[in-house]
Amino acid sequence: MASNPLLIQELVDEFLSHVSETTDLWACALVCRPWSRAAQRALFRVVKVNRYQRLWTRLETTLRASPHLVPLIHTLILRRSGAIRDQMVESICNIPFTRLEHLCIHSVSTMSLESVVAFQRLLSLPTIRRAVVECYFSEPVLFNSIWVKCSPNIRHLHLRCQQKFSDKALHPVQRHPSTPIILESLRLDHVNNVGDWLNHDLCPFDFSQLTVLSINIHTSAVRWSRMASALGNIKALKFVHSLHDPHEPMVDLSLFPNLLFLSINISDLTRTLETFSTITSSSRIRRIVIHLESTVAIDQLDSKIAGLPMQHLPIVNLEMNPDQYVGYVPLFPQLGAKGLLQRTGPGWFERCMDHTESFG
């Protein structure tokens, strides 16, 4: 039996590594026991639970009945709606995950104290390396509480937090945990006044070793006092120049001597051109990704980038679908003539953030 190639575990694992559809993996799991084990590893490596009560119930029931599946879970994505009761959240969070590395918490309903305490348990797991928190908080104490037992091993953080207490100050009340959490990447989306919390001396997160920074609002974040030590280490940077935030400062790229990858969402051309003016001859930037949010004076943008004072001009990727790209190519004659214009699909930077070695 051992000579049967269909039963050699290494070959089975290699074969199933190329199968991605859930229904196909379930079919493979029915072939025989070696196939079942390999298929289970693929099926449960990433577990996504959407906002439906039955899906949460099914996950909880499955893992309680088959605890051998729990160590297979490396990524857990929880999307919570108002229909998901705190008791169900607590039940999922009490499952003893032993190899969970990537945790995503998405909640469209306001976080209660019970759910905050439950999610504390997951964020405290020593195996967690990457955390995404997209939640609504009604009180500063609830936002502070979710980080009380946070694992010091978290290296990648994505925050998208809406507060319903914008008139109240948000500051850490004490440092938790006692060991600073040294981040390698940070992504901030629509975080209201969480900026004050992040820039506070008692914030549990240490930015000094950041290599990847994405700030979809508040470009002033690059001027935070706690961000100063990170600027020389950052290799990949993304930000937005939006007409909706006219008072946000332009970003001085000369402050990032080791920057290799730059991604900009552009609707405010004036600040964008000012930002490109800060690129010096010693710049190491080798790729610029541009997302055009509105009609801008593209000829000025083309001329500005093509005339950068760099020995080797960077590749410029337009972030759009292929049909759009065909129409935009003639609008960048200088970059096109230099062979520097390319296309990339939407979400390029975010995909690379999931594999930070892509920015090496």
Automatic annotation (TrEMBL):
InterPro entries: LRR_dom_sf (IPR032675). This is F-box domain-containing protein. It comes from Mycena venus.
